[in-house]
Structures are given as C-alpha cells and as structure tokens.
Design brief:
The chain is of the alpha/beta class and 329 residues long. It is 41% helix and 19% strand. The strands form 2 sheets. Strands 3-2-1-4-5-6 form a 6-stranded parallel β-sheet. The chain has a 6-stranded mixed β-sheet with strand order 7-8-9-10-12-11, with helices on both faces. It starts with a helix and ends with a helix. The structure holds adenosine monophosphate and manganese (II) ion (2 copies).
C-alpha cells in the first residue's frame, strides 16, 4: 500500500491514534502528517491526539501541531486515518473517522481485524512507525520525519531488545539515524528516563509484586485509594510491567492498577511462553503476543479478586500447556 495513491484527490485528511498515546502512536501520526504536508502541500492534514507526555512532545517533530480536541465547525474529512489502534480505542476523534468519506487503518496489533475501506495490518511489524515508513515515499523522508518514526520504533521495541525487532527493523533504524538527529538523547528521554513520580510508582509496584506459579508469574495490583494518596495518574505507571518482567525466572508480568473506582487497567508482558494478547482478550483487550493490555470493570475486593483469578488462570493454563509440551519433547 502507498498512502499517496490511497488518498489521492483528497483535500482534507485527518489522522489519529489511540487514547493515552505512546511513542509509536504519536510518532506514526506525526511522521505521516509531516510527510503528507510535504508531499501534498495544498492539502489540509490534521492530527488528533490526547495531550502527549512531555518527553514525547519534546522529541517528536510535528507534535506542536497536534489538536487535543475537535475545533467547532470542523467539517467532514475526505480521508481519516487511524494508526496503531482500532476505532474503539481512538477516543474523542472517533466520530471524525466514522463520518469520513474514506476510512484508512494502519496497525501492527495482531488482534486488529482491520477496519474501514483500506486497511493494512501487519502483526509482525515491530511498530506502526515501521509500517508508516513502508507506505510513504522514502525519497521525501527528512530529518524530522526520520526522528518521529525513530521514536516509535525505539518505544515499541524497547530500544531493539524485544522479539518484535527484525533485521529489517534494525536496517530501517540505521537508515533513519543517517538523517542526523541526536538519537542518543532521543533514546534516553523517550525510553529510559522516568519522571520522579514514575520512579516512585515503580518502586512501590516492585515492592508489592508477588510471585505466583512457581515464580513464572509476577503479579501486582494497586487500588485507586493507594494511587490517589500519591497523586499518581495512569502515565506514572508506564513501564512498570516491562520492568517486572526483568525479574529472574519470570515469564509473565501482570501489573494492574485502578484508574478510577471500579475501572482497572491491566498491563502484561511475557518472555517466551505466555501469549498475553490471548489473556487480555478474555476482558475485551488485546495487543501483541508479548505485550498486551485490557480494562477490567470490577469493584475493589472480591469482585476484583474474581476477575484477576480468571486472568491468572489463563496464564497458568498457558504455562502448564508449555510444560506438557516440554515433557513430550
Ligand atoms: P500497555 O501494557 O498499556 O503498554 O499495552 C501493551 C500493548 O497492548 C500495546 O501495544 C497496546 O497498544 C496494546 N493494548 C493495550 N490495551 C489494549 C486493548 N484494550 N486492545 C488492544 N490492544 C491493547
Ligand atoms: Mn501504541
Ligand atoms: Mn505500536
């Protein structure tokens, strides 16, 4: 698929990603918008996303043009593109997708069946940014576009450490850094650096995490009371499940926090065995084999404990099935 071919004759193009935007979603939206504005200068190209965390805002070129709400009087778009997401996860911009003449969906989540008139889903791509590079014309890539796409690749591959990193991912990253942006500070600020509150919440989460299933699963849940006592918000828990997975012997890390009373956000990571997208799908969520999430609606206490039991039973079953596989050779 080539995006210029797909949106030719369009005069107004809108782009969005998912709620609580991450580096891949924001990098893909901005990288694609910068390309379209350059390749189709007479065309109005708008980006709609919730406000970005500061590190992403500072490191993704084009982020200053993101609209955080739909301006009054906004007309229907000729084409509306959803990146790194399904329509249900897009949030406030979803009506613009629904009303657009041409609906486009580009995503690397294997649980996305594809939506709209033109969809391009590749569950093997490291990131949506990698897919955006495929659909744009490479001769028009410049330093800004390269940096925006690099942010997404670095975010979703954990700086090239996760198993979604392919040889082609590394080649593309090498090509992107040849445009000359300061990749050292991008990696540090986008991936490794934590805000003070993030560091604090990571500490609390690790201290409370419990081993289960003979140590193959590490589990932590924080209720809303605990979180509000510290004044933390959802973004302050970014990276917790990935850090939990770095514990020796752990193949599956489950971190769940209550974002508001009765609503729990589960973030899961796995090493070699558990397909966490399968477990997340039990609660209507999804994602990738090794990184997935879902939202659980349950009251604090037994209601939440029952829900967590269902999630953990699926993980235990997958670990058990793998053990059987080993025994059978
Ligand atoms: P997180 O743990 O929030 O970082 O999410 C891990 C991965 O799963 C990311 O690639 C998310 O985009 C994806 N993901 C999280 N929640 C959902 C969901 N409800 N549906 C589909 N994918 C999800
Ligand atoms: Mn994402
Ligand atoms: Mn992604």
């Amino acid at each position: 698929m080539k995006i210029l071919e797909t949106v030719k004759n369009c005069k107004r193009i809108g782009i969005t990603g998912h709620k609580n935007p991450d580096g891949d979603c924001a990098g893909a939206c901005c990288g694609l918008a910068l390309f379209l504005r350059k390749a189709m200068p007479g065309v109005q190209t708008d980006i709609y996303l919730e406000p970005l965390p500061e590190a992403l805002f500072e490191n993704i070129p084009g982020a200053e043009t993101i609209l955080n709400e739909i301006p009054a009087g906004t007309e229907q778009y000729d084409a509306f593109i959803i990146l790194d997401s399904i329509p249900e996860r897009t949030g406030f911009a979803e009506p613009l997708f629904e009303s657009a003449a041409l609906k486009v969906n580009i995503d690397h989540h294997k649980t996305n069946p594809g939506h709209g008139d033109v969809s391009y889903v590749d569950g093997n791509a490291s990131s949506t940014c990698e897919m955006v590079y495929d659909v744009i014309d490479s001769e028009m890539v410049d330093r800004k576009i390269a940096q925006a796409l690099y942010v997404g690749i670095v975010t979703d591959t954990g700086v090239f450490q996760y198993s979604n990193t392919r040889e082609s991912t590394m080649r593309l990253a090498g090509n992107l850094i040849s445009y000359g942006f300061d990749f050292t500070s991008v990696i540090r600020e986008v991936f490794f650096e934590r805000t003070y509150m993030q560091a604090k919440m990571l500490g609390i989460s690790l201290a409370r995490a419990e081993r289960m299933m003979d140590g193959a699963c590490l589990f932590c849940s924080l209720d809303n009371g605990t979180i509000t006592r510290y004044g933390a918000t959802r973004q302050d828990f970014e990276g917790v499940s990935a850090q939990m997975l770095l514990t020796e012997g752990v193949d599956c890390a489950v971190f769940i926090h209550e974002t508001k009373p009765g609503e729990w956000r589960a973030s899961m990571r796995s090493g070699n065995i558990v397909d966490v997208a399968r477990s997340a799908s039990l609660f209507g969520g999804g994602g990738h084999t090794r990184a997935a999430g879902c939202t659980i609606y349950a009251g604090t206490g037994t209601e939440f404990a029952e829900a967590a039991k269902i999630l953990l039973a699926d993980i235990a079953a997958q670990l058990e099935a793998d053990k059987d596989k080993d025994l059978k050779g």
